[in-house]
Design brief:
It is built from two helices and four strands, in the order βαβββα. With 84 residues, the protein is an alpha+beta fold. It has one domain: 2-Layer Sandwich (so0334 like fold). A four-stranded mixed β-sheet has the order 1-2-3-4. Strand 3 and strand 4 form a beta hairpin. Helix 1 packs across helix 2. The longest helix is centred in the last third of the chain and has 14 residues. It starts with 15 loop residues before the first strand and ends in a 7-residue tail after the last helix.
Length: 84
Amino acid sequence: MSDFMEEAEIDKDLPVRIFPLYAPRLIAKHAKIFRDGVVVVREDELGQMEFKDGRFVMPQRCSARMRQVIQELNAMLKVPQPAC
């Protein structure tokens, strides 16, 4: 297992998907389909990102790059509100 996979414990019941490159559309699509799980991005050593209920969870301590990536992915996952 890679060094960045050992940073935090991964729940064994959650599906883990490893992406070699940061591909925001594919990552968002994966989170939308599986709803709960962990995504690992090897490029730029982004590391692992957990998502619950189809939204990425912001870790308590993370780099500015990780914060930007999670905000970008969550913006892609926003469901448009129906017009009244």
